[in-house]
Structure formats: structure tokens, C-alpha cells
Amino acid sequence: MTKITYWGMALFSFISTISMAPMAAFADDRARPTQLGLRDAATPQMERITWFHDSLLMYIITAIVIFVTALLVWVVIRYNEKANPKPSKTTHHVLLEVVWTVIPIIILIVIAVPSFKMLYYLDRVEEPEMTLKVTGYQWYWGYEYQDHEGVNFLSYLIPEEEIDESKGQRRLLSTDNVVVLPIDTNIQILITAADVIHAFTVPAFGIKKDAVPGRMNETWIRIDKPGTYYGQCSEICGKDHAYMPIEVKAVTKEEFKKWLVQAKEKFASTGSRLPYELAFNTGVQ
Ligand SMILES: [Cu+2]
Predict the structure, then answer these.
(1) What's the 3-state SS for the chain?
(2) CA 3 to ligand 1 centroid distance, Å
(3) Ligand 1: distance of its center to the CA of 138 in Å?
(4) What is the whole-number distance in angstroms between the Cα of residue 230 and the centre of ligand 1?
(5) Residue 235 C-alpha to ligand 1 middle, in angstroms?
(6) pTM beyond 0.90
(7) Among 11, 96, 102, 223, which residue carries the largest CB count within 10 Å?
(8) Rounded distance from Cα 259 to ligand 1 centre (Å)
(9) What is the pLDDT along the chain (285 residues), one digit of tens a residue?
(10) Residue ranges of the domains in the chain?
(11) Taking Cα atoms as reference points, which of 273, 193, 204, 205 lies closest to residue 241?
(12) 195 CA to middle of ligand 1, Å?
């Protein structure tokens, strides 16, 4: 096989892998080998973020890069010392100055309008159907289902040596107590921390909010489809920053009700052991 054929085949398989990757059906939402682009959206929040990035910013950025590169190439070729021995002495050009001020302003407005709309949309939901309070600790997460008395628990990473792939557990992503949430429900998420600053992040949901001691941050999600979704702490918070994953299992409303009954029993004894005393009194309980 000639070298060229070999490289041609390698390129072809690379391109086909990339283009096939989004179609590969994984049972959960791990990042996939050779994956490009953003994580598949599981909420309207992430759908809007994906649209903003893929269908608006990407076109603007590409056009600007092509335009600036073309300008540079043109200047280098047309106005180098050999091609243009007598440079122009022009210092001002009214039309040009107006154009290079007004066009960037228009571009910024085109970006700003949908951007602010989305920020307000992501900020809060008028009438949440349920509330999940998340507390960041060094180095694990605490979850409180505020509408369901006694469903409070801590969630730790499952150590690598205990990971059981046959149960669908994932190295560095699976936790001992999974956060179970219903689909098609407006879920308010309150985020705080008890020691240092963490950040609660689940890419498929389009959420990334700082968890700050003494402060209650808020966001919301509405999950479209059942599945297991992963996230990680995204604010460097100490030596085990990389070992406090978030594992969310989205289920139907009926399954969620069933889970609540089990969870009340399961966490009846552990719920009170949450290190509340560590947490600042945020005024929201
Ligand atoms: Cu952290």
C-alpha cells in the first residue's frame, strides 16, 4: 500500500468516525471518543446554549476569521515594499472609520440580544414544581429534596477499584448516592457550599453555577428525556477537586414517586447526619 493511499484511508476513517460519533447510541451521556462539539442537550436550557454557540457564534466567528485573514494576505501581497514602493500618506478616512466602528457595534448587538434573552431564561423559573438544594463540600456533594421531608443525602465518588462496569458504573463519574430527578418537570436548583467555592456543573443540562459559602445561587432545569447524566465540580476546590462527580438519573414522574418512597426509608437514618452545622445559614431551608 502506498503512503498516499494509507493516509487517504486514515483521513477517511477519521472523518467518518467524527461524523458518525453523534449518532453512536450510548446508554448514558459520557463524552465519546473523537467527539466534537457540545454534549447532546437534555434540557431546553442546553438546546438554547447549543443553538447560540453552533448556529450563531460559530458563523460570526468564522466570517470574522476569514475576513481578517483575507485582509492580512491582501496587505502582505499588495502593499509590501516591493509591490508598493511609495506608500500613501493618508492618515484619516471618514467613511472607513465610520464603517469599522459601526459594523462591530452591529455584530455585538446581534450577539447581545439573544445572549441577554438566554441569560434571563436560564436565571430562574417563575413557578418551580420542585426544588433541589445542592451543597458543595470538600470533596463531595450534599443534596436536599426540599419538597420531600427527609430525602437528604451525601454523594461520594465510587473509588476506581470498586467500579462495576456491568452495573453501568463509570470510573471517576459514578457516585454512591445518585441524584434522581423527574423528567418534564420545572426543577429549581439552589446551589451553595459549606467550605470553599465549588461549581455545580452538568453539561447535558447546560448548567454551571458557582457554589459559594454563605451565598445561595439559583438556576433551573427541565429534563427532556430519561437517562444518566454526569457532571463534575468545575471550580478548583482543593486536592480532591477532580473526585467529586455529579451523577443524575432522570426518570419518569411515576418512577420518581416510587423512588421517593424508597429514598425516604433509605435516608431516614442518614438524612439527619448531613453536616448541616458546617453549612452557613443561608436563610433558605
Ligand atoms: Cu469542588
Answers:
(1) CCHHHHHHHHHHHHHHHHHHHHHCCCCECCCCCCCCCCCCCCCHHHHHHHHHHHHHHHHHHHHHHHHHHHHHHHHHHHCCCCCCCCCCCCCCCHHHHHHHHHHHHHHHHHHHHHHHHHHHHHHCCCCCCEEEEEEEECCEEEEEECCCCCCEEEECECCHHHCCHHHCCCCCCCECCCEEEECCCCEEEEEEECCCCEEEEEHHHCEEEEECECCCEEEEECCCCCEEEEECCCCCCCCCHHHCCEEEEEECHHHHHHHHHHHHHHCCCCHHHCCHHHCCCCCCC
(2) 48
(3) 6
(4) 15
(5) 6
(6) no
(7) 223
(8) 27
(9) 445 555 555 554 555 444 444 444 445 677 778 888 888 899 999 999 999 999 999 999 999 999 999 999 999 999 999 999 999 898 999 999 999 999 999 999 999 999 999 999 999 888 899 999 999 999 999 999 999 888 899 999 999 999 988 888 889 999 999 999 999 999 999 999 999 999 999 999 999 999 999 999 999 999 999 999 999 999 999 999 999 999 999 999 999 999 999 998 888 766 544 554 444 444 443
(10) 26-87+124-285
(11) 193
(12) 10
* CA 199 to centroid of ligand 1, rounded, Å: 6
The architecture (CATH level 2) of 26-87+124-285 comes to Sandwich (2.60)
Residue 146 makes CB contacts below 8 A (sequence gap 6+) with 130, 131, 132, 133, 190, 285
Residue among 212, 181, 200 at smallest CA distance from 244? 200
CB count within 10 Å of CB 272 equals 10
Dist. CA 200 → ligand 1 center (Å): 8
Residue type, position 172, single letter: L
Place of cell 482543593: 238
93, HSE (Cβ side, Cα atoms, 13 Å)? 9
